[in-house]
Write a structure and sequence with these properties.
Elements (H helix, E strand, L loop, with lengths): L10 H4 L4 E5 L3 E5 L9 E5 L11 H22 L3 E5 L9 E7 L29 H16 L1
Antiparallel strand pairs: 1-2, 2-3, 3-5, 4-5
């Protein structure tokens, strides 16, 4: 299956795509640089692929296991009202998943994080402060059973 962008022109092939927290030979988990959305993670497939159907069944299962591990860790560490999972690839056609903790008072809730910002003057409450080391350790511990 053809991928719309070549690996040589792909930003997710050329760079980590954010602050690297955990990686395996097949994927990496990064913290996205999104100050309005603390805990925003991405799971990025290492090999250049455009769609989930470009992966074989085992690869799909291992990728989704990493996505779900991220969700569990974010729920535990951040206690969000909701977690959004998205795999779009419209701007960067390299297979990656967004795992985004959401709160009812965040700037675009209940819309997507890319929607127009709220104009009702609601200020977000303070969010849990979770440093990269704590987040990485929690992810590694959550992912450990998947390696067994």
């Amino acid at each position: 299956m053809a991928v719309p962008a070549s690996p040589s022109a792909c930003p997710l092939c050329a760079t980590p795509g954010g602050q690297l927290l955990v990686e395996s030979p097949e994927w990496r988990i990064i913290r996205a640089e999104e100050p309005d959305y603390p805990g925003f993670l991405r799971v990025i497939w290492s090999r250049h692929a455009g769609e989930m159907s470009d992966l074989d069944d085992g690869e799909q299962q291992r990728l989704m296991a990493a996505v779900l591990a991220c969700e569990r860790v974010l729920r535990r560490l951040y206690a969000p009202d909701k977690v959004n999972l998205a795999s779009l690839g419209n701007m960067v056609p390299h297979l990656h998943w967004h795992i985004i903790p959401r709160w009812r008072d965040d700037p675009t809730f209940p819309g997507a994080i890319w929607a127009a910002r709220r104009t009702d003057g609601v200020a977000p409450a303070p969010r849990p402060a979770v440093d990269d080391r704590t987040l990485a350790e929690a992810l590694k511990a959550e992912l450990e059973p998947a390696k067994a």
